[in-house]
Amino acid sequence: MLFSSACKKEYLDPTLKTSVAADNAFDTEFRIESQALSLYGSLKAGTFYGGRYQVYGNLRGEDFINETSNLVTASDVWSMNVANSATSVKGLWSQGYLTINRCNVFIDGMAAKGLAVVGEQRATKYVAEARLIRALSYYSLLQLFASPYADGEGNKPGLPIRLTGITGPGSSDMARSTVAQVYAQIIDDLNFAETNLASTNGTAPLSNTTRAHKNTAIALKTRVYLSMGKWAEVITEANKIVAPALPFNAVANVPHALEADITNVFKAPYTTNESIFSLPMSGSASPIDYPGTQNSLASYFYFTGNIPGTTEYSLNTTGIVSNTTWRATDKRRSLIFTTTTGKPFMAKFTTPNPYTDFVPVIRWSEVLLNLAEARVRSTNSIDAQALALINRVRQRSDATAVIAPASVAAFTEALLTERRIEFLGEGLRGPDLTRLLLTMPAKGSAPSKAPGDIGYIWPISSDELSLNKLMTDN
What residue ranges do the domains of the chain occupy? Predict the structure, then answer.
């Protein structure tokens, strides 16, 4: 087994610089640090969180239109018609479980040898990073390959829970745990991470944006519990870090806050206080440290051949861009590029080849909206804090706009609309639809998909089915 020995710490470089045998991979502090950083590199692969996972979350919603009918670039995902052998299915499953296994191998290695090399405190922190990455990987796979938690309170088939590193043949067979069991493991990993990660990674903004700390784990728990419909738990986690009143900045650990100008979140240096966790890219070609043309967010939604607006997916003109509550004065409208023919494209990710935009995983605005939603759904009533939270996000980009729904139903509708606007192109729309068991709307020639329809959740990778005799398909 080979491990990477990365030297560009600030970019969490996934590529092998040197190779060492597994028996020696935990012999020195430098090698252990390198292995920890390589886990982030596996997470940010273009076929996973470096682009494709967010792409698929966008395309399963209703706000994008396919321009190319190219199966390689996920036209089957957009049309809601993926097969077990599809590139999208096989690639995401493979990279997700590869990342999980790398985390497991690292955790095993730290127990066997690394603890003695770096000491208990540092070893526990490294393991906490690995467990957070493992949790995020399992969560992401659940959103596509398993029924939502709300469908049977987690009693449907989930994923195989692999917690021990596989370093040779003969370990492939494992049955699926339930959705609830997988979520329980995710929460257990994130609780461990919160307890054992650093409060901050120092004063350098890059380190606090690209490497996990306590607030990363807490913020991700608000997302996970929201996906489970555990409203009280969302509130508990958010209250650990969100101030109870305006401007709702962080009260603990890293000083997270909304960036005054949202467009700054998506431009260099990508390290605002709003960016709780982002995956960095650089232009390094040796080793390669960017997602690749057919994986990058810019190549899907903004650039092809360095020409704005001639790309894989345009914005649906009858989707969120046509929503009348999203006013022309809203700064987020500037993150849309419109061609001379009037066709709109998303312009959050705009760097040309080699596509070095950082990829946002979770932002402070999501934590605020998660808290707002949970407060309303937990009591089936609108309170002052929930209204203030949603208006804080809206008014950051449109200072004179006021969201004032007259009923709980109107509030939840406004909340989901705000999420579509705020996180357009960031991959949250698909998971938002499934967690609430909402029908995925038709768009263009793509049909709608209701819960229970074939295609609402993905089939299991044909590779897994062929290797794992205990695996069952969806």
Answer: 9-467
